[in-house]
Every structure is written in structure tokens, then in C-alpha cells.
């Protein structure tokens, strides 16, 4: 058995792991680094038999469309991951056009990959040409999976994981394996208490509103925006939502079994005003107390309108 990283081993982004075992080749994730211009991993082997995708964030999924050019590769992921990855990779084409660089893939690549994709249940097992991969929830975001490759050695690829429950998802549970490939973005760090952090956040929002201000919350469309909305839901703030998080919310609402509490998520969104048209942004600036909007890094998206 051989394991080889195509990217992501000593960086955040461009993750790709190749497992070669008993004449078969499996690719775990194939991402990019969303810099300007983007950075990409080493090209994937042409003999990939199966690609598995842990979750939809671009540092894990951003280069999956070009796998459609490989002769035999199939892509397996949960249905939520496939749907959100489709949104993000299509948005990647738009970002490339806006920023004036050549995208790494085409709309045809995205469509061709979709035709080869297989949706696997969050506790499902996928078998393909003698390859067996078990999926189990990774926490992190809805649809995110750890993937256990069964072979000469059992290899557990965690993707990004979260072991504590959040508003959106439950925490990941440990699995037995022979080889563990685990993300370590926050290795060696101790996070502050989540409930206390959320309390301070709500207090700062309330204090800003009380002195006549508006709160702009830049948030990533996938996972973070939804967590923010749920953290604020019981506070009664006049809240508006803008950006791609709207489409991601639709995916999550269609798959409540992938959420910690689908009914609670739906209730949290009932009090949120959704910005659908440019004119709604002017209304949000007049009427909103809180505006949750992409992009999360203040480098693009509707947030630039609100802070400009």
C-alpha cells in the first residue's frame, strides 16, 4: 500500500490524497487554494478508479470537476456534499471571470462529473470494482464525512472534522483503523468555550444596535453563515441574509436528516429576511439591525456593497 499527497500535507488548501493498494487507485478529495489567482495540487493520476469527497469546501472539492477528464474515475460523496460542491465549483467559474484568470475547469467538466457522481448515505458503504469505502459523519458541516478505506490496511481519511456538536451538526465519533490521515489545522490549540464565545458575540451585537449602529457579519456561505443565523435566532434582531448562503440553506432544508435539528434550523430561518434583488440591499441598509453576508474574508461578494 502506498499513500501520496498531491497537496495539503504542509499547507491549508489544495488537499488531495492518493491511496494505491492491490492494483487499485483511490483519490480522497481534490481541492484548490482560493487565493488570487488560485493555487492547485499536483495533477491526479490518470488511472484513478474512484474519487471520494469528504465535504464541499473548495480546499477539498475545488478541483474535482477535472476528474471528469479521467477515463475511469467515479466520484462518491453524500448527496448534500455533491449538491453544495456543485454550487461552489460553478461559483468558482464566476469568480475566475470577475478576476480575469483562466479557470482550471469548464461548465462541461462540472456536468460530466455530475453524471459520474454517486450519492452515498452518511452511514453508507460504497463498493466499486473491488474497492470498499465506508462513510461516517465527520461533524464540521452538514454532509461532511470521514471515509474508511478497507484494504490491505484500513485507512481512515477524516477530511475536516469536529468532535463537538454545533448548532448544525453533531460531533464525529472515533473509528478503529490501521492508518489515520487526519487534518491538523488547529492541532495543539485549545479553543475557547463555544457557548461563552457566542454569548459575547450576541452581547456585542446588542450593544452595537443599542447605540444606533448596524452589524455586518461577513460569513462563509457553507456552514458559518448558518451557524451565525442559528446563534442569533433567539435574540430577536432584525436580520437580513445575503449571498450564496441562500442557496446553501435550500440544500440543507431539503435534507434535514443531515442536520442536528432540521426543525430548529427551519425555525431559525423563518425570522430572517432574504436579499433576493439589488433593491433589497438598499432596504437592508435602511431596516436591518444585522446583515449576515458573504464573503467571509471581505475579498468579494455582497459584503463589499455593505461596507463600501
From TrEMBL:
Is Hydrolase given among the entry's keywords? yes
Q: Which UniProt keywords apply?
A: Hydrolase
All copies of the Beta-Casp domain together span: 225-307
Q: Which InterPro entries match?
A: Beta_Casp, MBL, Metallo-B-lactamas, RibonucZ/Hydroxyglut_hydro
Q: Which GO terms describe its molecular function?
A: hydrolase activity; RNA endonuclease activity
Q: Which residues cross the membrane?
A: none
- Annotated signal sequence is none
Keyword Hydrolase set for record:
yes
Q: Which residues form the Metallo-beta-lactamase domain?
A: 13-209
What is this protein's name? mRNA 3'-end processing factor
Amino acid at each position: 500500500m502506498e499513500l501520496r499527497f498531491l497537496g495539503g500535507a504542509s499547507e491549508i488548501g489544495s488537499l488531495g490524497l492518493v491511496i494505491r493498494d492491490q492494483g487499485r487507485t483511490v483519490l480522497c478529495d481534490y481541492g484548490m487554494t482560493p487565493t488570487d489567482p488560485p493555487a492547485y495540487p499536483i495533477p491526479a493520476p490518470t488511472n484513478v478508479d474512484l474519487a471520494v469527497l469528504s465535504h464541499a469546501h473548495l480546499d477539498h472539492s475545488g478541483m474535482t470537476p477535472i476528474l471528469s477528464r479521467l477515463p475511469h474515475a467515479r466520484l462518491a460523496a453524500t448527496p448534500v456534499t455533491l449538491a453544495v460542491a456543485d454550487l461552489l465549483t460553478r461559483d468558482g467559474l464566476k469568480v475566475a471571470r470577475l478576476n480575469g484568470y483562466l479557470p482550471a475547469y469548464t461548465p462541461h467538466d462540472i456536468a460530466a462529473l455530475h453524471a459520474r457522481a454517486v450519492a452515498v448515505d452518511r452511514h453508507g458503504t460504497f463498493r466499486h470494482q473491488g474497492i470498499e469505502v465506508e462513510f461516517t459523519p465527520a461533524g464540521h458541516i452538514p454532509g461532511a464525512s470521514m471515509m474508511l478505506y478497507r484494504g490491505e490496511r484500513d485507512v481512515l481519511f477524516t477530511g475536516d472534522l469536529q468532535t463537538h456538536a454545533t448548532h448544525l451538526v453533531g460531533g464525529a465519533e472515533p473509528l478503529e483503523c490501521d492508518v489515520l490521515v487526519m487534518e491538523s489545522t488547529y492541532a495543539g490549540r485549545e479553543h475557547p468555550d463555544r457557548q461563552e464565545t457566542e454569548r459575547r458575540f450576541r452581547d456585542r451585537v446588542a450593544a452595537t444596535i443599542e447605540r444606533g449602529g448596524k452589524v455586518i457579519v461577513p460569513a462563509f456561505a457553507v456552514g458559518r453563515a448558518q451557524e451565525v443565523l442559528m446563534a442569533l435566532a433567539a435574540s430577536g434582531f432584525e436580520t437580513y441574509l445575503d449571498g450564496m448562503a441562500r442557496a446553501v440553506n435550500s440544500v440543507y432544508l431539503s435534507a434535514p436528516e443531515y442536520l442536528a435539528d432540521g426543525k430548529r434550523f427551519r425555525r431559525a430561518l423563518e425570522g430572517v429576511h432574504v436579499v433576493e434583488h439589488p433593491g433589497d440591499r438598499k432596504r437592508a441598509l435602511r431596516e436591518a439591525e444585522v446583515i449576515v453576508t458573504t464573503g467571509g474574508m471581505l475579498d468579494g461578494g455582497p459584503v463589499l456593497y455593505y461596507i463600501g
